[in-house]
Amino acid sequence: MAMILDGKETAAALKEELALRLAKLREKHYEPKLAIILAGSSKPSAMYASFMQKVAKGYGIDAEIFRASDDVTEEELGSLVTDLSEDQEITGILMMMPLPKGISAEKMIALMNPDKDVDGLTETNAGRLTAGKAGLFACTPRAVMAILDHYKIPIDGKKAVIIGRSNVIGKPVSLMLLSKNATVTICHSHTKDIASITREADILVAAVGHANYVTADMVKEGATVIDVGINRVDGKTVGDVDYDAVAAKAGAITPVPGGVGSVTTTMVIENIIAAGEKLAK
User: Fold this and answer.
1) What's the average model confidence in pLDDT over 29-37?
2) Which of 78, 117, 225, 262 has the CA that lies 20 to 30 A from 197?
3) Through-space distance between the first and last CA atoms of the chain, rounded to whole angstroms
4) Do 192 and 250 share a structural domain?
5) Number of domains the chain contains
6) Residue 1, pLDDT above cutoff 90
């Protein structure tokens, strides 16, 4: 049976480190503040905004939700993003997606100060990641890396396969694994015979958005399997991996829930602190 890579345990260990970094910031008389942009009437977005506000306050970080209605114009929302980007009291900006109809997410992201972009959405931060420079990077891929680091899963020289090529998960996590000297392959909807590729993986990251997509016959004996998927099936939350079958074959595996998602919010907090450390210099 595979070792369970517990996201809650990883997050708890990170919380101690983050508390120390926050204390050092406050020694410099700097108080970080998070601005959460909530545009429109999406209930999941509203729930996540409130949740992130609560998480931030749990660290003693001030977090304010800036609301805009469904009929907000692109000019109005763009003005808010610009104002928050220029506001010296704001350390980080978290913009809830999706935005209301008629609003270009790409345009709004482009207006954001990359040094306050705590979700790692801007092209500047994507470029920094590609170039191997410091920046604020997407939180879910960073959660994957945090779990691997916490459990001391070897990466250097290992074969890593990512299923999914999205800009928010697949591509950034591939670059993060590459930076740790993994040999990386990305699979996607046009990849032929995916199973023959995934069976070669020492580290398999599933980010395809399809419940139970990864089956036991797709996994190498003893592999580390990281499940990024969140799907609802018959009222239950499941991942992209057929958990019970794969756990019997893998060497280590993240559960859903309780895996990557449990660490993602911690990575948002880490990005706020990192942004504060840069601004406080």
Assistant:
1) 97
2) 262
3) 48
4) yes
5) 2
6) no
Q: Are 176 and 142 in contact (CB under 8 A)?
A: yes
Pairing status of strand 62-68 against strand 33-39: parallel
What confidence score (pLDDT) does residue 274 get? 97
pTM: 0.95
Going by C-alpha positions, the residue among 91, 123, 120 that lies closest to residue 278 is 91
State which H helix or E strand residue 205 sits in: strand 203-206
Answer whether 92's CB lies under 8 Å from 271's CB: yes
Average pLDDT over residues 37-47: 96
pLDDT of 145:
98
Q: Is residue 103 part of a domain?
A: yes
Read off the CATH number of the domain in which 80 is found.
3.40.50.10860
Band of pLDDT at residue 281, cut at 50, 70 and 90: confident
- Please report which helix (H) or strand (E) contains residue 232, including its range: strand 231-233
Which of 175, 170, 111 has its CA nearest to residue 140?
A: 170
Same domain, 145 and 258: yes
CA distance 83 to 88: 10
Nearest to 272 by CA among 31, 13, 99, 40: 31
33-39 sheet: strands from edge to edge: 62-68, 33-39, 92-95
Q: Computed over its alpha carbons, how large is the radius of gyration of the chain?
A: 19
The beta-carbon contacts of 44-47 under 8 Å, at least 24 apart in sequence, are: 45/96, 45/97, 45/98, 46/96
How much of the chain, in percent, has pLDDT values that exceed 70? 100
